[in-house]
Write a structure and sequence with these properties.
The protein is an all-alpha fold. The chain has one domain: Serine Threonine Protein Phosphatase 5, Tetratricopeptide repeat (Alpha Horseshoe). It contains eight helices and no strands. α1 runs parallel beside α3 and α5 runs antiparallel to α6. The protein is globular. The two termini are about 20 Å apart.
Length: about 150
């Protein structure tokens, strides 16, 4: 089995564990792999989010999204940026998260589309003043409820 097939197989195993509602088991599996592959690291961040460990997820996903730069590079996979934004939302960092999402398009991935839906619903529930603030790109700290499990592989 070559490395690419191996990574694909490993990600599929994690996907199955997550779909079965076992993020802790998936994280244990990833920890045994001891891999620095970007897809594996993304999966690790998703598992941490699903376990409610947003701070740890932010550390991993920030490194994946920014790759040592001060801005998210244009060639960063959109899903990595979306997962990082999700971890930020989990901590209530709406300003940072929504700025990242503004650079993503719903057509890039179904998970990004789901995030856009959650943000649209959140905006509908804002007061007129809060909506005005959003228009000015000053996002209220009101929690954004996700209708999907946080993160995607």
């Amino acid at each position: 089995m070559n490395n690419k097939t191996s990574i694909s197989y490993q990600i599929e195993q994690v996907r199955k564990m997550l779909e079965a509602g076992n993020p802790e088991q998936a994280l244990d599996y990833l920890d045994r792999l001891d891999s620095n592959n970007h897809l594996i690291q993304n999966a690790r961040g998703v598992c941490l989010m699903r376990l409610g460990q947003a701070d740890s997820a932010i550390q991993i996903l920030r490194d994946l999204a920014f790759r040592g730069q001060i801005c998210i590079p244009s060639d960063t996979p959109p899903l990595f940026a979306a997962n990082y934004a999700t971890a930020l939302l989990m901590k209530g960092y709406n300003q940072e998260a929504l700025e990242i999402l503004a650079d993503l398009k719903p057509a890039q991935h179904p998970y990004i589309a789901a995030l856009y839906d959650a943000v649209a619903e959140w905006k509908r529930g804002l007061t007129l003043f809060q909506k005005l603030c959003c228009w000015l790109k000053l996002y209220p700290k009101k929690p954004i409820f996700l209708h999907v499990y946080p993160g995607s592989l």
